[in-house]
TrEMBL record:
Listed PANTHER family: MTH938 DOMAIN-CONTAINING PROTEIN
Name of the protein this chain belongs to: Mth938-like domain-containing protein
GO cellular component: cytoplasm
Record organism: Catellatospora coxensis
Key words of the record: Cytoplasm
Pfam family, one: DUF498
Chief localization: cytoplasm
InterPro entries: AAMDC (IPR034096), MTH938-like_sf (IPR036748), NDUFAF3/AAMDC (IPR007523)
Highest taxon in the source lineage: Bacteria
Gene3D superfamilies membership: MTH938-like
Annotated localization: Cytoplasm
Length: 116
């Protein structure tokens, strides 16, 4: 279960982080610097690879609370080629969708941006 405020995502069993990476069985702080991600062009295939490696069959990607974060078309293609169910939404909606899927027992992963 997740909760969200500006600049803060609370992950049950983990605590508070600014941006979150979640995968089946775990999660924590999402450090964009690891892959060089920026608001534009946005979330890269390398960002979602750890979610798939952890067994996610569904992925939720947030665009930020002000829709500033983008998702590269290559990322959407990468997930589609692997048959992954993808949900891309404003962060509050992304948290809602993640919680619904997780509560339903779906092997869901997510990348969540808590601010802009």
């Amino acid at each position: 279960m997740l909760s969200l405020a500006w600049g803060e995502i609370e992950i049950e069993g983990v605590g508070e982080v600014k941006d979150a990476v979640l995968y089946p069985g775990g999660g924590g702080e999402w450090d964009w610097r690891v892959t060089g991600t920026r608001h534009s062009p946005g979330i890269q295939p390398a960002d979602v690879e750890p979610l798939l490696a952890a067994g996610a069959t569904s992925v939720v990607l947030s665009l930020g609370q002000q829709l500033v974060l983008e998702v590269m078309p290559e990322t959407e293609d990468y997930l589609a080629e692997r048959g992954i169910d993808v949900h891309i939404a404003e962060t509050r909606e992304a948290v809602r969708v993640y919680n619904l899927l997780a509560d339903a027992g779906v092997r869901v992963g997510a990348l969540l941006h808590s601010t802009c």
